[in-house]
Amino acid sequence: MPTRPPPSAAPGISAAERERIARIGDELRAGIESLADIGPAVSIFGSARSQPDSWEYRSARELARKLAAHHIAVITGGGPGVMEASNRGASEEAGTSVGLNIELPYEQLANPYLDIDLDFRYFFTRKFLLIRYAIGFAVYPGGFGTIDELFEILTLMQTGKLPRCPIVLVGEDYWCGLFDWLVAQVKLGAYVGPDDLDFLQIVAGADEAAEILLRQH
Predict the structure, then answer these.
(1) What is the pTM of this model?
(2) Are 125 and 26 in contact (CB under 8 A)?
(3) Cα 181 to chain center, whole Å?
(4) DSSP three-state, residue 16
(5) In a domain, 5, yes or no
């Protein structure tokens, strides 16, 4: 029986597609090699637009400090806002601070508080690495990107592709409406299983978030 040629040699694949496959492989390889030994980690998500005087910036900074004090690495998307606050807090506590920055049409510079700084061209390779090494997740208010990351994690847990672990939604005013809708419409409509929302927990701030996440350590 003939063997299937590797993608690089398969007929019908253009040179541009072969280059894309190679770039994807390079991104995954570089990320795995850089993060394989970081130990337990928590990924923190939230808006790049949050300002240093906002409650979520201050809260994410404090949460990261609490995690780093217990030798838990902090992983973020590497940019400004909540990401910067989280990396900053980890750095202030001499913890491992990881930033996985995405290349965008408008420039998103990596924040200056990173021990490990990786750049990504593809959202899906970056997202894989944001999730792969985490023992739990903290999600602060944010826009489409933050919400996309939240539902990606929920989908992976629901389908058994990711071990179930805490997802802490920080900010009651921001998240309660979404959670109520998930319960009243999605869960009661049987579009998800009866326990598929059990690992979502809404908290007011860093103290409650840290208490929940540190139980995984």
Answers:
(1) 0.91
(2) no
(3) 23
(4) helix
(5) no
The residues that bridge with 203 in the sheet, in sequence order, are 170
DSSP assignment of 127-147: HHHHHHTEEEEEE-S--HHHH
**Is residue 130 within 8 Å of residue 152, measured between CB atoms?**
no
CB-based contact 85:58 (threshold 8 Å): yes
- Rounded to 5 degrees, φ, ψ at 118 are -120, 140
Number of structural domains (the chain) is 1
pLDDT digits (tens, 9 = 90+) for 162-196: 999 999 999 999 999 999 999 999 999 999 999 99
Inter-residue long-range contacts of 144-147, CB under 8 Å, 24+ positions, other chains counted = 145/48, 145/77, 146/45, 146/46, 146/47
Listed residue (153, 159, 169) closest to 192, CA to CA = 159
Provide the domain limits for residue 158: 15-214
CA–CA separation, 122 and 38 (whole Å): 22
Q: How is residue 38 written in tokens?
A: 């970081």
How confident is the model at residue 109, as a pLDDT? 81
Report the chain's C-alpha Rg in angstroms. 19
Residue-by-residue DSSP string for 21-73: HHHHHHHHHHHHHHHTTS-SEEEEE--TT--TTSHHHHHHHHHHHHHHHTT-E
Tens of pLDDT, residue by residue over 59-81, are 999 999 999 999 999 999 999 99
Q: Could you give the maximum distance between any two Cα atoms of the chain, in Å?
A: 65
User: Using one digit for the tens of pLDDT, what is the confidence trace for 78-123?
Assistant: 999 999 999 999 999 999 999 999 988 775 788 999 999 999 999 9
Residue 8 resides in a domain: no
**CATH number, position 156:** 3.40.50.450
